[in-house]
Amino acid sequence: MSWSFETDSEFQQQLDWIETFTREEIEPLDLVFRGPGDPWDPNSPAAKAMAPLKDIVKKKRLWACHIGPELGGEGYGQVKLGLMNEILGRSRFGPSVFGCQAPDSGNAEILAHFGTPEQKEKYLQPLLDGKIASCYSMTEPQAGSDPGEFKCVATRDGDEWVINGEKWFASHARFSEFLLVMVVTNPEVPIHEGASIVLVEKDTPGMEIMRNTAVGPYVEQGDGVHGYIRFTDCRVPHDHLLGEEGKGFLVAQTRLGGGRVHHAMRSVAVCKKAMDMMCERVQSRTTKGELLAAKQMTQDKIADTYTQILQYRLHVLYTAWLIDKYKEYNREVRKEIAAIKAATPKVLQEVIYRAMQVHGSLGVSDEVPLMNMWANIPELGMVDGPTEVHKVTVARTVLRDYQAAPGLFPTYHTPTQREAAMAKYGHFLE
Ligand SMILES: Cc1cc2nc3c(=O)[nH]c(=O)nc-3n(C[C@H](O)[C@H](O)[C@H](O)COP(=O)(O)OP(=O)(O)OC[C@H]3O[C@@H](n4cnc5c(N)ncnc54)[C@H](O)[C@@H]3O)c2cc1C
């Protein structure tokens, strides 16, 4: 049996380097490039600033290192990625500089598993090299959480699929070379047997981005990065179907599971950053003759924050460890992924709120990054499925291991249990 909470010293050295590199070279990017697509858009002004940083990461052999060696990565697995992401997530640019950014990392996995050799050559390699962006488009304007309501269809016509319908919140569609689109290929059967994923290249006739929706109040309306797309008789070749027809959700699982864990890993970094700010502030600010740090109500906040982050972090790393162990998204793995996905917005909410509170007016101002962190929380309760749906998954999986009590009273009914216990040990009382 092995059970450990240690990082081996060799990898720890790499993590120490990542920590310094992130603080000194990557976090300043956040202060200069504020466009909503900047970390992902290969044509944004930030891309030029990021290029030399990416080269350094590649030389250090830390680029896309969760991806297997057959695809040019280091095959480090999810635990190591978790340890890296809990540093990289301090900056919006961190994952992109290290080649592990969503949604490209998940899309690459789909292409690697299901793409044709031509698709791999044309899209996978440039994607893995960080030269192009990609989009995963599943949500529709009338339905997100419930795929049973999806209506965007693809019908077969000779050697082509003809797509008709609408998609919503397709992140990065406006600068992606290709989109992986979930379509209904057989409306006669339940959606989990009738949906497929097709690759649609940018500028394919019949695909129109109607709007680019923005998240939060800080972006010009319409200048966001989440595409509202209409497909009208949009034709793609037959071999652009990824995986088997009707097995779209199986294909999607390749990316959605991993994606959810990666959000959580990055959120650990955000929590830690908020705690760092909080701890520095309370050691710096004096009120009523003493430091904020000396006040018990502040200490209560510090203790709760520390404990909450540690619990959350260990849960995230445990989930990463499970994925590495099982190498598939089995029921046990899915339960933990759903649990940490549901926990994420709550932990962020409580941690960031406390950090803002101890900063007073400065905490809610535009002079510290806390309000930006705060504004990002709600999206984490929705992206890749809302909290409620993940909680249902957790509860259902947990309840599978329980049955109703055999009699009128619960199994832990004290009088009944005591009677049995007395029969076993009662004679010692005599
Ligand atoms: C920043 C951001 C980026 C995104 N990027 C992408 C992307 O790239 N590609 C893509 O396809 N989609 C993307 N999405 C969409 C995301 O996947 C959906 O928002 C999510 O699946 C929920 O769907 P919906 O928005 O239609 O909400 P709905 O399905 O309408 O749900 C609304 C609310 O109803 C409640 N609810 C729903 N189901 C249940 C239930 N079973 N039990 C109890 N309550 C329930 C919840 O409170 C939920 O938040 C993105 C979303 C955000 C915020």
Describe the structure.
With 430 residues, the protein is of the alpha+beta class. The chain is built from 14 helices and 10 strands. It has 3 domains: 93 residues, Butyryl-Coa Dehydrogenase, subunit A, domain 1 (Orthogonal Bundle); 109 residues, Butyryl-CoA Dehydrogenase, subunit A, domain 2, CATH 2.40.110; 147 residues, Butyryl-CoA Dehydrogenase, subunit A, domain 3, CATH 1.20.140.10. Strands 1-4-5-8 form a 4-stranded mixed β-sheet. The chain has a 4-stranded antiparallel β-sheet with strand order 2-3-7-6, with no helix packed on it. The longest helix is centred in the middle third of the chain and has 37 residues. The two termini are 44 Å apart. Bound molecules: flavin-adenine dinucleotide. The site of flavin-adenine dinucleotide has 22 residues, from strand 1, strand 3 and helix 13.
